[in-house]
Specification:
Blueprint (H helix, E strand, L loop, with lengths): L7 E9 L15 H10 L4 H16 L3 E5 L22 H4 L6 H4 L6 E6 L11 E2 L2 E7 L5 H9 L4 E3 L7 H12 L3 E4 L3 H9 L5 E7 L26 E8 L5 E7 L7
Parallel strand pairs: 1-7, 1-8, 2-3, 2-7, 3-5, 5-6
Antiparallel strand pairs: 4-5, 8-10, 9-10
């Protein structure tokens, strides 16, 4: 069994009062029109609350990575990238090994990673770096070889964890082992956050609750993904902090309560 410790995982998301994290399943918040509507829901103090939350996280945990899912960047209907060359400069087996080019991992000024789970190879990247953040793609052994070859040609780092899809626990351990990451902040949507929750990988939750309700059957929520299986119980939380702003914004911080191991 791999005993490499994993990073602490903090889910840090803004939601409506009914737990929605976007307007509709087919509306990405990265789209300008959806982003404008989402921002219009927020009171004037929302940005100050976001800044305060970021400062608290930095002071408490010094996170070195932000985690997102491909579903935050492309729609559900998007499949693997097409039109990529089918001939590779390296053997296929080599493509399915970690790729961490020195000019990125050792780049002067590099401090943090923007890590994206993309098992199917769906995202075509136009930006590889944003200030102190460098892009890191988390893939699986089943990720299409043309996509992995594309990442290598573009000098985009990736880690391989899992078979048919990214094994989140293994990916986190590899981020700790290979990159020294001790804390990851997930700003992802409900699919990835739900998978982290079911896998027992969430340690802390920080929520900014916007004084607005969205509704809608199927609208993504903070934790989507698999339902509770028979015999499973909900994840218990301990409230660490609650702040109610005069403008109606609510800031909540919870620790996940770890149940003692049986026996």
């Amino acid at each position: 069994m791999d005993e490499t410790p994993r990073p602490r995982v903090v889910v840090s998301v803004s939601t409506s009062v009914d737990g929605r994290v976007t307007l509709r399943r087919d509306r990405l918040l990265m789209d300008d029109s959806a982003h404008r509507i989402w921002r219009s829901m927020q009171p004037e103090g929302a940005q100050a609350a976001e800044d305060a939350r970021s400062s608290l996280l930095a002071g408490l945990h010094g996170p070195q990575a932000v985690l997102e899912g491909s579903g935050s960047l492309v729609t559900d209907s998007a499949g693997p990238l097409t039109g990529l060359p089918e001939e590779f400069d390296e053997p296929v087996d080599a493509l399915h090994t970690d790729f961490l080019p020195e000019e990125v991992a050792e780049r002067p000024g590099h401090e943090k990673w923007f890590a994206v789970v993309d098992s199917r190879g769906r995202v075509r990247w136009s930006m590889k770096r944003d200030g102190e953040y460098d892009l890191l793609v988390l893939v699986a052994r089943a990720t299409p070889a043309p996509y992995l070859a594309h990442l290598r040609r573009e000098r985009i780092p990736y880690l391989v964890a899992g078979g048919e899809r990214v094994d989140l626990a293994a990916a986190l351990r590899r981020m700790r082992e290979k990159l020294g990451v001790t804390c990851v902040v997930s700003t992802a949507g409900g699919g990835l956050n739900g998978a982290l929750l079911r896998a027992g990988l969430v340690d802390e939750i920080q929520l900014l609750v916007i004084p607005a309700a969205i509704g809608g059957l199927g609208t993504p929520t903070l934790f989507d993904g698999p339902e509770l299986a028979d015999g499973e119980v909900p994840t218990r939380l301990r409230l660490l902090f609650a702040h109610v702003g005069g403008d109606g914004m609510l800031w909540l911080r919870y620790d996940v309560v770890r149940e003692p191991a049986p026996g």
